[in-house]
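Hi all, a correction to my earlier message: I attached the wrong file for S26 family signal peptidase. Here's the right sequence:
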Amino acid sequence: MALSDTVTTVQQTIATTLGTRSLLGTNGLAYLFFSATALFYAHGWWTGDKRRTTRSRKRETNLDARYVAAGFALLLVAGATAAMVVPAGTHEYGVVSAEFESEQPTVIPVGQSNDVEYPLVNSGVLPVVSYVEPASDGVEVAESRRVLPAGGQAAATVTLHAAEQTGYYRRYVVEHRYLALLPVGVIDALYEMHPWAPIVAIDVLLGVPFYLLGVALLGTGRIRDRSRDGPSLLGRLGRRFR
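and the right structure:
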């Protein structure tokens, strides 16, 4: 919850500063992640170019290519994890157990219950699997698992039960969300084991092939730059695609 609140606050601050809503939600998180990665690479290229122009002597820089591949794989995994963790979390309903009828869905006569809708929105470009479960007493959820396509919307029916005594009571539901990169049955089985198990499996599914692809492109040796006029890492990658 602290991580989700922090990321949401940062997104809202940047979106307000730039005057755009496109940086909010899951898509906005992806844009910010891509922008930060691009700025990081541009900064490294710029500072490296300045050092090359100010030095006349030859130099040698050693960097293990596997560390480079692992670093980009970790960035990808971090972005995927944030896309699953940030939109999820715990939601609170304030229920008033009253002795009268009311049009407010959370003001419920003593001992009775009422249904409310929990909105589910997928603003990303990948389908997601969402689970909404009770997180306190006095709550029931019908059809807790929903599969949302890219840009899809749905609603889970949450039944709130009023206490036998009048007063104000807090009811909670918790949502867990996962990128639908595994079969739904596999995600169901992993979710039954632990809510974090699907996240770990999806991160491994993304990170390991990306790392292996990076190693295949960069090799397993050290990246060396012996001359100020030598080809850059980007240039060497380009040659491998030719």
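Sorry for the mix-up. The chain has two domains: 2-84+205-241, 89-181.
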